[in-house]
Design goal:
2 copies of one chain form a homodimer. Chain A is of the alpha/beta class. Chain A has 8 helices and 14 strands. Chains A, B: InterPro entries: HAD-like_sf, HAD-SF_hydro_IIA, HAD_sf, LHPP/HDHD2. Chains A, B: Belongs to the HAD-like hydrolase superfamily.
């Protein structure tokens, strides 16, 4: 079965551990207990999120408040991944991101920008800010655009919101450039999560609610991947033209039950 | 030569007659006189613009103020073209357009929208307005998005601005839908301008500064097309991979000189 020979788990957070919302969100039944059981089992564990509306510190504090055993050192997130790329390539970003994400870039030289980093800026997606990011990009000899994800939209308690991917497409079109996506489903992003766990892809399982970004992305790295029927899961995902998970599970608790039974 | 057997001219406005700007803009030398000479020659004439930041009335008044002999009845513009499509197909639009364009849709039923019309909304491209247009679209069984142009960006006196095409791409991506472009370079748009002149495409010449939207679009309708070296023209346009104008001219005045000499 799909649960054989596993040494490490990658868990998506929103939609797997909890359902997010302006009120802070609510835990998904059984998920906090499931995380504790993974840790007690000796399996390696990483939380692998595309969250870009807060620093990891703030994000982890919220999850601890919801009852999860999680620490900053266990989280793979797009902003620190972007920082590695920026340092590696000597890039100085102009940031179009959420105010609460800015501290993640504290160590990065942002003077005289030679690239644009776009995240889910939410209220910061103003006409003026979009034009400014565009002008920085179009002014470069060879525009470099890093995008912290490529989501289309998401749901909040007050309705659907356009996600970073939509604004990324606007800048891509205006500047005739292709963005480099830093979070899931980028191969490099999953690979750093695996490296941080010290587990090769064939011994790891990704568990997520997003058929494309979690399941498809992990499988392209040689991992197995499960889709949970919580969070943004929709029954139509089971007929996705390109991606087929190694298995469906009703929720994280069920996945952990099956995996631990096989150990 | 390219100027033979011509009975009608289609003129782009911004970049051919005048250069626009927050100050109202300035006429391009010789263009007002060129328009008068066309009219005196007996050639048919239409102004064919993608302008969507003002009603035709307001737009024409501005051009008259700059010394041009032009009337509302001579202008083909995206908003009235969109109104024909909306009526024809029984579509009730949610409008994401410039405040000054709204009166063009006065006759159109906008209750209980079953499509979205996007124009160059400028300051109306707020986070809230984009989310609202997105929610209307994604809520439809089969989303219908009409876009009043597909420009990438344009220049104003205070800098470059993202044009309607960038926001169109954002909504296309978020809703997994293809917009129907109503202005240039849409075939139907040029065809209505030709029908309004009563001239077949093979007897008409389009004169514009935009290599793709003016020249490419007109040629695909069977017209000849000239690119002027004014407005948004850039020397690199002369190496465009897909589009080659029938001729280049330094400006409208030069084109009209050559055309009238051949009559």
């Amino acid at each position: 079965g799909w649960a054989r020979a596993v040494r490490g788990l990658l868990l998506d957070v929103s939609g797997v551990l909890y359902d997010s919302g302006a009120d802070g969100g609510v835990p998904i039944a059984g998920s906090a207990e499931a995380v504790r059981r993974i840790k007690a089992s000796g399996l390696k564990l990483r939380f692998c999120t595309n969250e870009t509306q807060a620093t990891r510190e703030k994000f982890v504090k919220k999850l601890q408040g919801l009852g999860f055993d999680i620490s900053v050192a266990e989280v793979t997130a797009p902003a620190p991944a972007a920082c590695s790329i920026l340092k590696e390539r000597g890039l100085r970003p102009h940031l179009l991101v959420h105010d609460d994400l800015v501290p993640e870039f504290a160590e990065i030289d942002k003077t005289n920008p030679n690239c644009v980093v776009i995240g889910d800026a939410a209220e910061n997606f103003t006409y003026a800010n979009l034009n400014e990011a565009f002008r920085v990009l179009i002014g470069m000899e060879k525009p470099v655009l890093l995008s912290l994800g490529q989501g289309r939209y998401y749901k909040e308690t007050d309705g659907l919101k356009l996600d970073v991917g939509a604004y990324m497409k606007a800048l891509e079109y205006a500047c005739d450039v292709q963005a480099e996506v830093v979070g899931k489903p980028a191969k490099r992003f999953f690979e750093s999560a695996l490296a941080e766990m010290g587990v090769p892809p064939e011994q790891a399982i990704m568990i997520g609610d997003d058929i494309v970004n979690d399941v498809g992305g992990a499988q392209r790295c040689g991992m197995r991947a499960l889709q949970v029927r919580t969070g943004k899961y929709r029954p139509s995902d089971e007929n996705h033209p390109d991606v087929k998970p190694d298995a469906y599970v009703n929720n994280l608790a069920e996945a952990v039950d099956i995996i631990l039974r096989q150990l």
